[in-house]
DNA sequence: CTGAAAGCGCTAACAG
DNA sequence: CTGTTAGCGCTTTCAG
């Protein structure tokens, strides 16, 4: 019998139970929404007894090394915010532990809590058009991203329905660093400037605004800028944005992992993307 | 002999080695700099074979529960970004694993990679005074924070040296949410408005700016706003800020933990706080 | 130099 | 119902 100040060893428990109650949170790089998302994800995880390990994967090799933590039983499950390797490669790790993401990916063994950007994006264009914006610019993420493809489909369909509108200003980016500034330079250089531009991320939109203002332009008078996250930055910059429910996505992405790992079932949250006015 | 597809079990290794190579990153709540800091901290940790567990402690009880992970050998060490319990209470856990923080705390068993805010703050006030700002406002963090006390000492000493200056506008806050807006309301209501205001965080300064603009004020014409982190937000909002070297702090805070846990020694980085102009 | 064994600290199963 | 034991998978030690 030990003395009364006995402290159980968690690692021994983990070995025995073959569970660490730890989930990996993988993102290629840091951008502001990572923090917000992680905040939501970690809190719901903590409520159900899980802790969250953060990994900034940076390289394809590193991402694989991190996924291999599932095979060594260091992690019970994995959430992927931004990936590097192909979904095929990633999904091959699902047999070692459940994997979820917020990206739109169609694999039987990866839970995807995606939002269909098509209807909301079409709705936003309609809204802008009704407010007199015939020339609408689009700053989009990479086309390898299914959300981006949904957006370009919406653009094409909208263009077909409203031939008098102009959707020619389209930019595609793979990262978020320096992007807003680059887009602003392109806008300043454009001969036929769109009167409104929709962005794939609040942060990029914010950088766009600040670069425009630095160049003596007025926002929203010269250009209405629309963000895409409903994050704090959107409020700060006083821009309209699109709520794509990342908080619910974080919630549901965890719920899936939990349900896969445990016998009891937690229930999913509904999500409802919507336009958010500048405050 | 097993087949060739043998995968070692990390948890068994951890049990044997009595090491998890995992560091806890504790913060009371989320605010934008948390993400930036975590990014720096996690990357340097990963370079040296450590992963980082994030905890949003929220309550005093929760924070203790998290610190107890040191006693159960779930965590090797702990970094504290924002605390809840007293440093006395926290330091009593140092015998179970090294603890570091970026706060200014004078405990033999807690490494504090603090920046002395006194000289840089005095310098900033001087700079503003030389540029014609006789009435300078101060939005500060809690007085239980040693950095805040260094700032108030700088204010008092400056006031003594320049009796014609006005430093009466002083606000103290415990959190970062809604703070900038509240400070802006106070500024708008003030009869004797300071022509420049220095903030304890970029994010709070940004919120202040956006609230002022919403109320028809011009920044920086009506009020020069100075931030305090040199974070992305400062660039976005085009405000001058103070670089307090949080990236170096993240680096050094990790180095300490590493050196305590290992026999080899990594070396610390120098830090040099400085004024950063609006770009 | 190679191979077996002990033990890290826990929990589940089993015996008393 | 209580107490002992086997084994989770690794590493270190010790014997061959």
UniProtKB/TrEMBL annotation, chains A, B:
Gene3D superfamilies on file: 3.40.50.2300
Cross-referenced Pfam families: Peripla_BP_3
InterPro entries: LacI/GalR-like_sensor, Peripla_BP_I
Keywords, sorted A to Z: DNA-binding, Transcription, Transcription regulation
Top-rank lineage group of the source organism: Bacteria
GO molecular function, one term: DNA-binding transcription factor activity
SUPFAM superfamilies assigned: Periplasmic binding protein-like I (SSF53822)
Record domain Transcriptional regulator LacI/GalR-like sensor: where: 126-238
Transmembrane segments: none
Cleavable signal peptide: none
Protein name in UniProt: LacI family sugar-binding transcriptional regulator
Organism: Companilactobacillus bobalius DSM 19674
Lineage: Bacteria, Bacillati, Bacillota, Bacilli, Lactobacillales
């Amino acid at each position: 019998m030990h003395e009364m100040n006995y402290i159980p060893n968690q690692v021994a428990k983990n070995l025995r139970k073959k569970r660490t109650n730890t989930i990996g949170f993988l993102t290629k790089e840091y951008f502001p929404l990572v923090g917000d998302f992680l905040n939501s994800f970690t809190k719901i995880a903590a409520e159900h007894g899980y802790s969250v390990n953060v990994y900034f994967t940076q390289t394809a090799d590193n991402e694989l090394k991190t996924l291999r933590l599932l095979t060594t039983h260091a992690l019970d499950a994995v959430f992927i915010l931004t990936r590097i390797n192909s979904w095929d490669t990633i999904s091959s790790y699902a047999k070692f532990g459940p994997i979820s993401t917020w990206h739109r990916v169609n694999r039987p063994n990866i839970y995807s809590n995606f939002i269909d950007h098509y209807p909301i994006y079409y709705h936003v264009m309609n809204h802008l058009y009704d407010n007199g914006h015939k020339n609408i610019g689009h700053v989009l993420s990479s086309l390898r991203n299914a959300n981006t493809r949904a957006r370009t489909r919406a653009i094409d369909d909208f263009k077909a329905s409203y031939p008098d509108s102009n959707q020619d200003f389209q930019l595609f980016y793979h990262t978020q660093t320096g992007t807003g500034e680059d887009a602003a330079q392109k806008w300043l250089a454009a001969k036929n400037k769109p009167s409104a531009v929709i962005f794939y991320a609040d942060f990029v939109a914010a950088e766009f605004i600040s670069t425009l203002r630095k160049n003596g332009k007025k926002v929203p008078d010269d250009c209405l800028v629309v963000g895409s996250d409903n994050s704090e930055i959107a409020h700060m910059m006083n821009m309209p944005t699109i709520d794509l429910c990342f908080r619910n996505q974080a919630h549901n992405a965890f719920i899936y992992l939990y349900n896969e790992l445990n016998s009891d079932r937690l229930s999913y949250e509904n999500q409802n993307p919507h336009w958010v006015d500048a405050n």
